[in-house]
Amino acid sequence: MHFRIADDVAWVSQDDLDGGDVPVAYMTRVPGGPPILLEGSGCIVWLALAEGGTLEDITVRAAELSDTDADLIRDDVADLVDQLVVIRLADEEDR
Amino acid sequence: MDPTSEELAEDELGHIPVAARVHLSHAVVQQLADRGGIDVLHLKGPAVLPGLREPGRHSSDVDVLVRPSHLPLLVTALESIGWEQRTTFATGSVFAHAANWWHDDWGWVDVHLHWPGVTIEPELAFEVFSRDLVQRDIAHRPCPVPNATAQRLILVLHSARSGGTTDVEHAWGAADTAEQDDVRALAAELGAEVALAAGIGELEQHRGHPTYLLWRHFVEGGSRMDEWRARWAAARGARAKTHLLTAAMRVNQDHLRMELGRPPTREEVRAKQRERWRKAAGEVEARVRRS
C-alpha cells in the first residue's frame, strides 16, 4: 500500500514561510476544508509523507528527519498516517 | 497591507499565522477559479517571483486580478464557501479598482478588476497581464501569476500609489537596463507611463498630463483638499467630474463599518458626514490664512 498527500490538499510548512526552527505545517482541503495544524513529530511525518511511499518508506524518512530510530516511531507513524487517511488529507492506493 | 514580519505573526483570526493563512488562502481561491473556469492572476505576497521583492516580507491579505467579465463567477464562488463582501468597487479606493471579501478562516481577499495606474480597457489589460503568465506553486498548488516583467511593473505601480516602498529597489532598482526597458515597453502598452514615472522618480517629465497632480499627491502626500484637486484634474469629461463631486461628500459606509466593527447607524453616518464637512471647511480656512 502506498500513501501520499491527497490531490485536493494545500499546505505550507515553516520551510515555505521562513518561519523558524520548530517543525510546523498548516494544511487544508481546498476549497472548503478547515485549516489544520500539525506540529513537532506530526509535522515531520507530514513532510515524510509529502514524498509519498509505503508506510515503511515514510517511517524511515521520518526517522531520518528527526534523527530517531525507525523502530521507536513505527507504530506512531502508522497511527498518524491512518488518521490522515480518515480525514482525507492523505490517500492510500494499491500498487 | 504588506507588513514585514520575522516570525509568523498571528492576526485577529488567532489560530493560524498570517503568512500561512495567506498561502493557503491563495490556493483556496485558485481551486475555486479552476472549478468555475474563472481566469485570475495572483498578485503580491507569495505570488511574487523570487528576487523581485525583499526576502521575509509577507502580505496580510490575498490579492487577485480577475478577468473583468469573470467577476460575477468569482463572486459567486467566493461567497459559496463563506466569503462575505465588505467593500464595494465604488468605495474600495480612489481608483474604484478593488473590493474586499472576508472569510472567518481565510481572512481578506482583495479582488482587483484592474491595477491602479493602468489606463487601457480592463479586459484588455487582463489579456496583457496574462500573456506569458507563470505557474507558481503557492501552498504546493500551481497558481497563475504574471511574468517577471509584469510583476516588476505591478510592484512599482503599487509603490507609487503607496507613497514609495522598498519594493521599488528590488523590482526596479535591481533590474538591469534590458529588464527596465521591458517594463517601460509594457507600461506603454498598458497606458501606465505616468504611474511608472511616479514610481521611479521621473514624474516631472509628465507635468502637463491630466493625472500628474494625482500621482504627485500619492508620491508626496498632501491634504485631502490637494487630493481632491488632483482627482478633479485627472477626471476626464463631465460624467467623471459629476461622479467625483457626488462621491466627494458621500460618507464611505463600508469603511465606517470596518472602523466600527459593525454596520453604522443612520446617526453615525450623519455624524461622519458632519465631520467631513467640518474637516473640509477647516482646510479651506487654513488655506485662506496661509494666503
From TrEMBL, chain B:
<dbReference type="InterPro" id="IPR039498">
    <property type="entry name" value="NTP_transf_5"/>
</dbReference>
<dbReference type="Pfam" id="PF14907">
    <property type="entry name" value="NTP_transf_5"/>
</dbReference>
<protein>
    <submittedName>
        <fullName>Nucleotidyltransferase family protein</fullName>
    </submittedName>
</protein>
